[in-house]
Amino acid sequence: MIRFILVVCTVVLFLIFSIPLMIAEWIIGKFNQPLKDRSSLAIVNWAFRNVIRVAGTKVIALGEENIPKDTAVLYVGNHRSYFDIVLTYVRVPRPTGYVAKAEMAKWPLLSIWMRYLHCLFLDRSNIKEGLKTILTGIEKVKSGISICIFPEGTRNKVPDTFLPFHEGSFKIAEKGNVPIIPMTIVNSAAVFEDQFPKIRKATVVIEYGKPIYIKDLDKETRKNLGTYVSGIISETYFKNKENYKSLL
After folding, report:
1. Cβ neighbours for 155, distance < 8 A, ≥ 6 positions apart
2. SS3 call for 155
3. How far apart are alpha carbons 154 and 166 in whole angstroms?
4. Which pairs count as long-range contacts for 12-17, CB under 8 Å and 24+ apart, including other chains?
5. The pLDDT value given to residue 23
6. Which positions ≥6 away from 224 have C-beta within 8 Å?
7. Cys-Cys with 190: which of 74, 82, 139, 202 at CB 3.0–4.6 Å?
8. At 98, which helix (H) or strand (E)?
9. In this predicted structure, what is the pLDDT of residue 233?
10. Where do runs of H (alpha helix) occur along the chain?
11. 10-14, 42-46, 94-98, 164-168: lowest mean pLDDT where?
């Protein structure tokens, strides 16, 4: 429980003591939005790196060279842990908004930083509002802001399985004309969820696949993008679970 308490304290103290930074970032954004994007990214990355260090988590990152540096992308990943966001956000090379559940918009202080980072709040129970969120995501990537989404829709609680990927998630890449980056996460639940409420040292493997350009796919594959990308992530998941089994 000591690690859990330390992680909670790290997050809470950051949110409290970062209030002056929130105000400064708000002022910067009034005059220079790109600067605010970069500085907010740096601030939150610093906080997340501290969380990872306190949690005792080691990350093996593969395929980062596959992430284009000259364009926004749509990251698409499997989802097993709250730590998926923390572990992957510190690796993004440019401002990136994550698609989060609508309830997180009500979290004090944290939701402010999420908005600064271009995160989107998706209400899956409301089709109309969900469509608005996807349309906003399209505008974000067109403006150069990457988006990350976990198309399973929720944390999958069954080990070594994958929930169906929601096809609507891929409209951001299709309509925004940006590549999809498959993001495969192995063993993240070992940090927290597997022994809730304890946090334990763990090794997590994250692999970024080669960019997928929708316009280069055949018609049938484009119609079933969810299945196609899920297949790539599934194959990579079991490959890395085998390759790194001695460390996991």
Report:
1. 79, 80, 81, 82, 193
2. coil
3. 11
4. 14/47, 14/50, 15/108, 15/109, 15/110, 15/113, 16/109
5. 96
6. 167
7. 202
8. strand 96-101
9. 97
10. 2-17, 19-31, 33-55, 83-89, 110-116, 127-142, 171-176, 219-223, 225-243
11. 164-168
CB distance 170 to 74 below 8 Å? yes
pLDDT tens sequence across 156-194: 888 889 999 988 889 999 999 999 999 999 999 999 999
Say if CB 171 and CB 222 are below 8 A apart: no
Nearest residue to 166 (alpha-carbon basis) of 112, 130, 140, 121: 130
Task: Say whether pLDDT at 64 is over 90.
Answer: yes
Cis before 197 (ω within 30): yes
Alpha-carbon gap, residue 48 to 86, rounded angstroms: 6
pLDDT at residue 125, rounded to an integer: 78
pTM: 0.95
Structure tokens at 147: 């988006």
Query: Residue 38 above 90 pLDDT?
Result: yes
Integer Cα distance of 89 and 104 in angstroms: 17
Full set of structural domains in the chain with CATH:
58-243 (3.40.1130.10)
C-alpha distances in Å from residue 97, one per residue of 118, 130, 142, 240: 4, 16, 13, 27
